[in-house]
Design a protein that fits this description.
heterodimer, A: alpha/beta, SH3 type barrels, B: Rossmann fold, Arc Repressor Mutant, subunit A, 3 domains, five-stranded parallel β-sheet, 9 strands, flat
Chain lengths: 933, 475
């Protein structure tokens, strides 16, 4: 249900600054950066050329990664485009190709994409947010971090091979169009601090300089979201405003909001929720990085860290986050006095930055920073939530008004939901009971908050001197005032009320959360449920496989064995003879769709064994080959079979798994697929979906079929659906109109093979292995063509004929060709009815009983009689035949035996004498069999 | 068959014990000790000479023949099915050795030796070291694996796939299916171990929803995946018609038909060999004597007649084994050979009519009611009757002919009637009997006239007038 709550937030994209250059020919203007803001939110995110970004794709959880090369638009400013260099995620590389990597891939690993076939010009409005991408040497290990927003590049991928890639290429190549000054080199200005210490120094220096300097005016500007810094000062300038923003916002952040944001963000699994978040403030994510990085640090290194952090603006951010809940205490002092106290102080302290420029250089800043860090420490041990904390704060920061906040407050349910999910760690899909956890946590709140605050206090004592504390406390008032300022303007009274209420409710939760993560004793409801499900599941890494044999399979040694191997249905022929026309039709259909990047459906029908599936496979093989040599864009091929699933809805699960490797429940998979096929995804390859045994996907509402045929009609789906079934008029017979209509009229029917075709098939399979007489082949093909035209049958008969030939030969080494007699024997074996032999070989009493049945039928003139009636005839016949009298039990036994092998059809035997009897064979057959006897 | 073993086994063992303890070691009291001592004695004597006391010989005979008759021991070589044996063996060998996927159905009426054939083939196949190391076997039975879900779990369990935890298989049906298919798909002809699927009561698998299991098994057997051989065993001759056409198309259409085309002489011979002791019998002299007695037994005219009758009734191995088992259970130390009379008695037991036997236990009133019903059936040509009609008929008899019988009150008659219904000698016409009063509920007689007459002949101290009434044409 959570997927239903998908809210789309509208984002506004604006060019920042003046066009860098103007292309007269194309009438395009190049820009240096792009600002993204969310409607209703005062936050903006800046995208610069050379920066790495996430681009909205089909999959919510893994948006595409790319680097902006150029930002440009037309003169009117309506069209905004971005030229990008793509990066490919591990999940986007086709699973089989992933083997080429020769090692385990890192979840955060991406590949520099060198393939063609992907449009590198995207709509700027699909940009989500910046991310960090780092280059690693091929041999270097992946840093041990579960930061979701840092990607690592080792190799490049050109859709066939992996190659090592130059660091310069990846990390910060100055974009040709907007050649940024060298200072910009760290392509992600806000991110450097979040990178591990080793990577940081350069940027640190910059920011160190930047941080203390800021004149309050700039800060304020930043806070109000109006900061415009020149490109030249970008990295420094940018960090400063962010910090300022954070600080500013921190005061205003309600705990609830902070939490909810956090949750939303982290709840990457719930598409809807997450979407909203992303939309709301792309820049947010940058800070998440910082925060998460921070949190990952060890406690021991705190002091060190503090210093380091002091230089890097984003950290401030995180501080604010941690603080945010406290502010709430302010507003509702009655609620949680204890909890609120300390944190507020911190905020004050920080807000000091905001108003009076903090005096000294490095040293001067550090106390604050230390403080901040310390404040965070309890949280540092927690794993999940951090990201969003940062994010939300940021968001706040830019907002002079409270509007955004109130907005978020108005959706408590959603927040809670997200919260719970967050706790599940990102991989878990289902957020189950949001409410319950909330309540539980609420109860634990106050005590925990107290504890945590004690911890903070202790640490403060330990790590900082009195000065710190001094500074710490007084600023409180300032904070209060500033807060009020901020609020006063923006909020209407009732909004405030809502806000307060929301905060009060949410704040404890926030605290709990933090605590939860810091220690294992706290109840972790959802995760634990997830981790230990009631029934042990299949071991997660169970690899389905049949043990391999100890002794190698023997290879065919003589001609007949060779022929038998070739004739086995499973052996894939080099080409499919006699289906050239069908092959051509399907090929051109699929090819055109792939080239056009459109979607479509095709329905293929035909009786079993006419090569439907084989032809489609052949087409896909050919297309794959063509795609490999670059003649058509690459595509995905997914195959499902209605018979190979237990329930029609499993189709979603299988498609999803084959497309992305994700495992999901049927409902969830349906939602994800729906999303994938309906959202615009510039880089999505065409998907060719083969649905075999389509009729098995029938459900009462036919929603599975409906979806399968509806997706291709979506604008961005790029889905080609090929469906296969036996009946020609399946669409008319079982589909309701709206489904049949979507399936369309592209139909193809595979006619049963004629005898010439069958003969050709066998000959081509044998491929010059001379094992059959020409006449024998013709006999087989004619016989099969007359009966069913099923190529499988034909091959099976031939195979059996080779066996018979082999066994009939006196000397196994000197077997001749398979002749007419062998084929005849095989045909007899397969097509002869067993009934007549069975009757012939039945016991005397059974034969008499059959005779009695026929006699009774004749007497009655019906094709049905009770056992009692037949038995009378039976006894009479026994007398005629001179056999001894037969008992009822004996007669019934004979009757039951005949019934068991279905020569007779019987009612259930509990009916005794009244059981009705019918013949399952024609009377003529019975008489024929008995006469011959 | 099994039932007869069970019922006769106790009587035999106690008899046997008595014989042994009387002859050999009267001081032994506990039967367990007796057995132990016998075993010890046996092993000692085998070394010394091949003469054993009669009691021990009889024990040996019983155990050897019982093993044979209860199908616990496979015959050395399946008889009369050499061609089918060869076909199946070759087929499975090719799967085991060449990794060629195959599917085959063994079809034949019950008791024609389908399972025996398959077991013999498997025994022979596994005798080959090369095969034994490679082959994986999965045995399923349509009566046990009643749906695909259970069948899949069983397959996974027997294959020891990796989603097996201990002896249990977890995960949903869908998971299991995709796991198994994935596993089979990953294999290929030359490298994975061939899997032999034996589906007993194959026809029942065809009743599963969508025939998912069969489709998938046959599909695997017709595609380049892990090599599998699917062997279905069924007694339904129309089994192919049960398969959906797409399933049918994937089946290779190899059918091995088993029919017992025995003639009576072969049947006689079979009886003789089945009853004879093998050459490896510890006491050669006893074995010789026993075999000779069996030979004379089979040549006996009356025995031949009895066997002919059994042969006419059914050529099934099981019914023959049942007959021989009944004979065998009459062999004791006191009577160490099989007499023709034993065979006659056994045959009588085999052929006796169950319902007629039940009539012996009825009271005279109940019997009279049955006779009344018989007359009603005669008069109304099998139309159903009710208690009142039967009672009237009975009263007519009492008034007209009866000397020895007196009228019974209605409740007594009612009770007798209900008893007959409980014994299922009569049966209500329609199941929903709640609405009508019991006296007027329509019933049908579940007995044939011949059964009634037969029972009357044997009924102890049956009054003559009742007999006469039963035999008279009209009530």
């Amino acid at each position: 249900m959570k997927y239903v709550t998908r809210l789309r937030v509208r984002r506004v994209y604006k060019w920042r600054g003046q066009p860098v250059s103007f292309n007269r020919k194309l009438k395009t203007q190049d820009f240096g950066s792009l600002a993204i803001s969310v409607e209703g939110l005062p936050r903006t995110t800046i995208i610069n050329t050379g920066q790495h970004i996430l681009i909205e794709g089909g999959d919510e959880d893994s948006p595409y990664v790319a680097r902006v090369i150029r930002l440009f638009g037309d003169e009117s400013g309506k069209q905004k485009k971005a030229a990008v260099q793509w990066f490919v995620r591990v999940s986007e590389v086709p699973a089989p190709k992933l083997k080429l990597l020769g090692r385990e891939s890192h979840p955060q690993e991406i590949f520099y994409y060198q393939g063609r076939g992907c449009d590198d010009e995207v709509d700027a409005e699909s940009i989500l947010r910046p991310v960090q991408v780092k280059h690693l040497d091929a041999a270097a290990p992946f840093p041990d971090s579960d930061d979701k927003d840092t990607f690592y590049v080792k190799l490049s991928w050109d859709s066939k091979t992996f190659k090592t890639v130059d660091a310069a290429l990846v990390e910060s190549q100055p974009a040709p169009a907007s050649s940024p000054p060298p200072k910009d080199k760290p392509s992600l200005p806000p991110s450097p601090p979040c990178s591990p210490p080793a990577a940081a120094p350069a940027s640190r220096a910059v920011s160190r300089r930047a941080l203390p300097t800021p004149d309050p005016t700039i800060m304020r500007k930043a806070a109000s979201g109006e900061v415009r810094y020149s490109r030249a000062t970008m990295s420094a300038g940018r960090s400063a405003p962010i910090e300022a923003e954070c600080l500013h916002s921190a005061t205003k952040l309600s705990a609830s909001k902070c939490l909810s944001a956090k949750r939303r963000n982290a709840a990457a699994r719930t598409p809807g929720v997450r979407k909203k978040l992303q939309l709301s403030s792309p820049e947010k994510m940058i800070h998440q990085d910082v925060l998460s990085q921070l949190l990952d640090e060890d406690l021991e290194q705190e002091v060190m860290l503090a210093q380091r952090l002091s230089s890097s603006p984003p950290q401030t951010l995180s501080v604010t986050n941690s603080l945010s809940p406290l502010k709430k205490a302010h507003r509702a002092p009655g609620g949680l006095p204890d909890a609120s106290l300390k944190p507020t102080v911190v905020i004050n302290r920080l807000s000091g930055l905001d108003s009076p420029p903090s005096p000294t250089g490095d040293e001067a800043t550090s106390p604050q920073q230390q403080l901040e860090v310390e404040l965070q420490t309890p949280r540092r041990r927690q794993n999940t939530p951090r990201r969003t904390v940062g994010t939300r704060t940021e968001q706040k920061a830019t907002t002079p008004s409270w509007r955004r906040e109130t907005q978020s407050l108005k959706e408590p349910a959603l927040e809670v939901l997200a919260e719970v999910e967050n706790e599940n760690s990102p991989v878990l899909l289902a957020a189950t009971t949001p409410r319950s956890s909330k309540r539980k946590s609420a109860q634990l709140v106050s005590s925990r908050i107290r504890k945590q605050l004690n911890l903070v206090a202790n640490q403060l004592d330990l790590n900082s001197d009195g000065e710190d504390e001094d500074e710490f406390l007084p600023s409180k008032k300032e904070l209060e005032s500033s807060e009020e300022d901020g609020e006063g303007g923006g909020l209407s009274s009732d909004e405030e009320v809502v806000e307060k209420r929301g905060r009060r409710a949410a704040a404890p939760r926030g605290r709990t959360r933090h605590m939860t993560r810091s220690s294992s004793r706290t109840p972790r409801k959802t995760p634990s449920r997830k981790l230990t499900p009631s029934t042990p599941r299949t071991p997660r890494h169970a690899t389905p496989s049949i043990p391999s044999r100890t002794l190698a399979a023997r290879q065919p040694t003589n001609v007949l064995e060779e022929a038998r191997t070739r004739l086995h249905v499973s052996s894939v022929p080099e080409s499919l003879p006699c289906r050239e026309q069908e092959f051509q039709d399907i090929y051109s259909f699929v090819e055109s769709k792939i080239i056009d990047g459109t979607g479509g459906c095709m329905y293929i029908s035909g009786v079993p064994g006419t090569g439907k599936t084989a032809t489609v496979h052949e087409v896909m093989r050919c297309l794959q080959h063509v795609a490999d040599v670059d003649e058509i864009p690459p595509f995905n091929f997914v195959e499902i079979n209605g018979m190979k699933m237990t329930d029609p809805h499993q189709a979603y699960v299988q498609i999803l798994q084959k497309l992305t490797g994700q495992k999901a429940t049927a409902d969830h998979a349906a939602v994800l697929l729906e999303k994938r096929f309906s959202s615009p995804a510039p880089r999505q390859e065409t998907t060719v979906l083969l649905v075999d045994e389509l009729d098995l996907l029938w459900t009462r509402k036919q929603n599975v079929m409906y979806n399968l045929f509806d997706w291709p009609t979506r604008r961005h789906a790029r889905l080609v659906v090929l469906t296969i079934a036996n009946t020609m008029d399946l669409p008319e017979r079982i589909m309701i109109n709206r489904v049949a209509s979507r399936l369309g009229l592209t139909r193809m029917s595979f006619q049963p093979y004629g005898f010439k075709q069958l003969q050709q098939i066998i000959t081509s399979r044998l491929n010059k292995v001379k094992a059959f007489e020409e006449d024998a082949l013709q006999l087989v093909s004619r016989k099969v063509a007359a009966l069913s035209g099923d190529a499988r049958r034909c091959l099976d008969i031939c195979r059996r004929a080779t066996e018979i030939c082999e066994h009939s030969a006196p000397d196994p080494s000197a077997t001749g060709l398979v002749g007419m007699s062998h084929v005849m024997e095989a045909l007899d074996e397969m097509f002869s009815s067993p009934y007549i032999t069975a009757i012939k070989c039945a016991s005397v009493q059974e034969q008499l009983f059959l005779r009695a049945v026929i006699a009774e039928f004749r007497r009655l003139g019906l094709e049905e009689a009770t056992f009692q009636q037949v038995f009378v005839q039976h006894q009479a016949l026994c007398r005629v035949e001179g056999l001894g009298p037969v008992g009822v039990s004996e007669g019934r036994a004979a009757c039951q035996r005949l019934g068991a092998c279905r020569l007779l059809l019987l009612e259930p035997s509990r009916l005794g004498l009244l059981q009705r009897v019918r013949l399952n064979v024609s009377q003529d057959d019975v008489l024929y069999a008995l006469k011959a006897d | 068959m099994m039932e007869s073993c069970v019922t006769h086994a106790p009587s035999w063992s106690s008899q046997q014990m008595r014989g042994v303890s009387a002859n050999q070691m009267p001081e032994m009291k506990s039967s367990q000790e007796v057995v132990i001592v016998i075993i010890i004695n046996m092993s000692k004597r085998k070394v010394k000479d091949d003469h054993m006391p009669v009691g021990e010989c009889i024990t040996q005979v019983q155990s050897i023949l019982r093993e044979r008759f209860c199908h616990q021991k496979l015959p050395e070589k399946p008889q009369a099915v050499e061609a089918q044996h060869k076909h199946l063996l070759e087929l499975l060998k090719r799967t085991a050795i060449h990794g060629e996927s195959n599917s085959v159905l063994i079809v034949g009426p019950r008791g024609t030796g389908k399972t025996m054939l398959l077991k013999c083939v498997l025994r022979e196949l596994l005798g080959d070291k090369e095969v034994q190391k490679n082959m994986l076997e999965v045995h399923l039975n349509g009566l046990l694996q009643t749906d695909d879900k259970i069948a899949l779990k069983e397959i996974t369990r027997q294959l020891h796939l990796e989603n097996t935890v201990g002896d249990k298989v977890f995960g949903s049906f869908a998971e299991n299916l995709s796991f198994l298919l994935e596993a089979l798909k990953k294999g290929n002809r030359s490298s994975s171990r061939p899997v032999l699927f034996v589906l007993d009561e194959f026809d029942l698998f065809a009743l599963h929803k969508n025939q998912t299991l069969l489709y998938n098994l046959f599909d695997v057997s017709q595609s380049a995946q892990a090599p599998i051989a699917v062997v279905g065993v069924t007694c339904r001759l129309d089994v192919l018609e049960l398969l959906e056409k797409r399933v049918k198309s994937r089946f290779s259409h190899r059918q091995i038909h088993l029919v017992s085309s025995l003639t009576f002489t072969q049947y006689l011979e079979r009886v003789r060999t089945q009853f004879s002791l093998p050459g490896s019998f510890p006491d050669a002299k006893f074995a010789q004597e026993w075999n000779a007695s069996v030979k004379t037994l089979c040549e006996d005219k009356s025995v031949e007649e009895v066997l002919q009758r059994h042969f006419n009734s059914s050529k099934d191995f099981r019914s023959m084994h049942m007959l021989l088992m009944l004979c065998l259970s009459r062999v004791s130390v006191a009577k160490p050979t099989v007499n023709p009379s034993d065979l006659l008695e056994a045959s009588r037991l085999c052929l006796s009519d169950a319902k007629a036997d039940m009539l012996h236990g009825l009271s005279i009133l109940e019997l009279c009611l049955i006779i009344a019903m018989k007359h009603l059936n005669d008069v109304y040509e099998g139309e159903p009757f009710n208690l009142q009609m039967v009672h009237n008929e009975f009263k007519k008899f009492l008034q007209r002919k009866s000397n020895s019988m007196y009228n019974f009150e209605q409740p007594v008659v009612m009770k007798a009637f209900e008893h007959l219904q409980q014994l299922e000698l009569i049966r209500p016409v329609d199941a929903s009997s709640a609405k009508t009063q019991r006296e007027y509920q329509l019933m049908r007689l579940m007995l044939d006239h011949s059964q009634i007459m037969e029972a009357l002949q044997k009924y102890p101290q049956c009054p003559t007038d009742v007999k006469q009434w039963a035999m008279s044409a009209f009530g």
